[in-house]
Amino acid sequence: MPEGWLMRWIAAPYTMVGQPLGFRQAWARPLAGLLTAIADAGLETAALPRTVISDQIGAMVALLADAGPITGSSAGESLEKRIRDTIQARYEDPALNPSAVARELAISPRHLHRILARTGSSFGAMLNAARLSAAESLLTNRRTEEMPIGEIAWAVGYADQSHFARVFKVCYGQSPSQFRAALRRIL
């Protein structure tokens, strides 16, 4: 089934890929019967237009997934939000990568990158944004003002302090130490 069509009916269609249809599941028998009838008789002599049959299949798949129909754009937005939320929840993990997030969301890494590309972002950009936001909070917090920069880097998910300092400088125009020192002068 085309991905775009399927996403009109199910927000996360990849959660159903490879799942067997158990006949004890609600709506599995009617869906299997409809697909069997199509396979046996074909659609050339069907009394209904193909679009109506397509909608019937989509509705049954949505019922089987226990989800109502959704619009195509909100499916992508919902998945993008779930990706963002997953990154935000796990940014502290230095080993976090697109494959791990995709696996958690039951999608392929390629699909994850496609969803983010549609929004004009990337996995790396989202991950760095989450980490840098957390680092800024630690650098500006009075309770952590004596925390070494290396510990801050590690706390927000950077395994290498020099990489953290480079990324921070690109974003803020100054190193984490300079940022902290400038803030102390202001306060």
Give the arrangement of secondary structure elements.
Layout: H1 3-9, H2 28-41, H3 50-64, H4 72-90, H5 98-105, H6 109-118, H7 123-140, H8 149-155, H9 161-172, H10 176-186
Helix pairs in contact: 1-3, 1-4, 2-3, 4-5, 5-6
Properties at a glance:
187 residues, mainly alpha, Arc Repressor Mutant, subunit A, 3 domains, 10 helices, rod-shaped
Tell me about the largest β-sheet. Answer: none
Number of helices: 10
Content-based structural category: mainly alpha
> Count of DSSP E strands?
0
Q: Which geometry do the CA atoms define?
A: rod-shaped
Unreliably modeled segments? 67-74
- One letter per element, helices H and strands E, the order comes to HHHHHHHHHH
Count up the domains: 3
Please bin the fraction of helical residues: 55-70%
Mean pLDDT: 84
Straight-line distance between termini: 60 Å
Radius of gyration: 24 Å
Oligomeric state of this protein = single chain
Strand content: under 5%
